[in-house]
Amino acid sequence: MIDLAHQTIGMNGTTRKNSGGKKILLDGQNLGRIKAVKAFYDHHGKVNHMNITDDGKTLIASSDVDSIILYDCVQGSISNTVYSKKYGCSLVHFVRGTNNVIHSSVKVDNTIRYLSLNPTQYVRYFQGHEKLVTTIKVSPCEEVFLSGSQDNTIRVWDMRIQAAQGMMKTKTCPLIAFDPTGRVFVVGGKNTLDFYDLRTFDVKPFATFKYPALDGDWTDVTFSPDGLSLLVMTNGKEMLIVDAFSGEALHKLTGHHNYNKEPLTATFSPCSNFVFCGGDGGYLTGWSRDTGDPIYQCGSVDHTDTINHVVFNPNYLQLATASSHVVSSQIEP
Q1: Of 80, 96, 125, 140, whose CB is crowded by the most CB atoms within 10 A?
Q2: Largest interatomic CA distance in the chain
Q3: Which regions are annotated as WD repeats (predicted)?
Q4: Is 2.40.50.140 the CATH number for 1-40+211-332?
Q5: CB < 8 Å & 24+ apart, contacts of 321-324
Q6: Mapping DSSP to helix (H, G, I), strand (E, B) and coil, where does residue 174 land?
Q7: What SS3 class is residue 106?
Q8: Parts of the chain with a pLDDT under 70
Q9: How many alpha carbons fall within 13 Å on the CB side of residue 205?
Q10: Do residues 147 and 136 lie in contact, with contact meaning Cβ atoms separated by under 8 Å?
């Protein structure tokens, strides 16, 4: 089992042992000391999404075989498993401040479902999208989430109300992300980022930036925890770091392997200084945000196929990687 209960990580890039130990700066040297400590082989199919609670204690993963599994990040164990055989499941996210979740449906219809995990029952259904939901992003500070779909719309939802609170049409299947304040969100399209104020999302964006094409199609976008940067992910061999204020393209991230053209989901470190992404053959690659240079690359004996999702724990020195199973790794100080 993993026991990281006495090592926490702060937004300033340091770790601190609760027992009074010295602070440790996260840097290229100790980020290179990543050690896989536990592998879970319980999904029996490709993991299609992962999410973690704000306190870092619980991770959840959904899979293509209709399973939703909760992991205790402190004990290094599975705490619950539920199935959505009728509807399928993807894009699973925690409801802020709870252990309840929302997830998209991949069978029957395009409804987003609110699932209580104790007891296990559906609480609410968010209906409106006419085609497959491809992205869900939860506000970091309100009971609000955004969804995007192959019907080329974005919808704004209140967790407590079934009907959408707003809808926006887009030219392509949209990518979306909230900034850390929850007041601004970005919409990614064909080599374009549009910035919106959530309070006036139904008017034109307050800023628009266009970029040269990358290797591969854009597949996701996310803000860094400090709100200074945006990361554009692709199904190719390049990603892009963008200045979130000026819109300037700062660095292309290259060197990871993605010959199978998977839509890889990458993650910032909690201090925002580093980016990690998986790839073919179980390889994990890390870069410096400031320079765009690779600082880490290593294969995995636990992952033999593509690592398509990476999540950095916001409070503990852990990385979770997923392919057809989930591996928890510890960063050794």
Answers
A1: 96
A2: 54
A3: 126-160
A4: no
A5: 321/278, 321/284, 322/47, 322/50, 322/61, 323/46, 323/47, 323/278, 323/282, 324/43, 324/44, 324/45, 324/46, 324/47
A6: coil
A7: coil
A8: 1-25, 28, 43, 301, 325, 330-333
A9: 16
A10: yes
